Sequence to fold (315 residues):
Amino acid sequence: MTTTGTTPDRGTTSDTGTTPDRGTTSDTGTTPDTGTTPDTGTTLVIGATGTTGSRTAARLSASGHRVKAASRRAADVPGAEPVAFDWYEPATHAAALDGADRVYLIPPVGDADPAAVMVPFLRRARLAGVRRAVLLSSSAIPEGGPAVGTVHQALPDLFEQWAVLRPSWFMQNFTGTHAHAVSIREEGAVWTAAGSGRVGFVDVEDIAAVAVHALTDAHAPNTDLVLTGPEALSYDDIATTITRVTGRAVDHRRLSYEQMRDRLAAHVPLEFASMLAGMDRAIAEGAEDRITDTVQRLTGRPARRFHALLEREVE
Fold:
């Protein structure tokens, strides 16, 4: 999942005194998938080389939509116009926004207060002609919550057309470059403070598919959309499934909150490490033990299962 205002690969949960996820918020006010059609607009995809941004940009381009692919180095993205963009360099914002009428927003990685840079940018985007904004947040961070929750709260007042995607943890955390995937390869273990708590892990391809609909359907969702896979799994389940599908023995190593925080603090700032470890603690307490049908309702097909992702990745 994404830890917005945290990291696009982490998926998030917050243990900072926020209210429990509303769950049904994402299951109302939307209509079944009716497909999307090419239009005359241009979508600015911020973070277009990232986990969900790259897939969203690719899907938009493949469907005939014009895309401006924003990244710090203006990296080439097939079918899109590359453009330099840095949240912390306002001088890059005007060129990125030029000609765009909708934007896919991935918050700056590791920033505990992304609203400080994002809200001024969004005001500028509205003045520049952007009429629809789709924000990547997290199932663990409600409107008005910490980090990107503040941006979520501001979005409806800035744009008449909007959506907030709140995915659960990413399935790709176990197959890509995320710390879990690295520890699986190097140690045969997944380390968490999540205990026996379960998570509705979601395939990032499903997140991107929903993002495209939220950006291009005739009517914007104008709500937040909680995205999960079709089953809630514990990290013990994850380890067992990886072992069965790949043939490599993988264990779930259980840590305390403090142990997890200290392990993470070796790689990220302590404040951020505390936030991430708190997310695991919230999982242990049941905060992420739920599934939604949002992916099927918006895309017209079932959300993918974890074992199917592994079988695809192993091939």
In short: The longest strand covers residues 161-167. Confidence is low (pLDDT under 50) at residues 1-38. The CA atoms of residues 151 and 166 lie 13 Å apart. The first helix runs from residue 51 to 62.
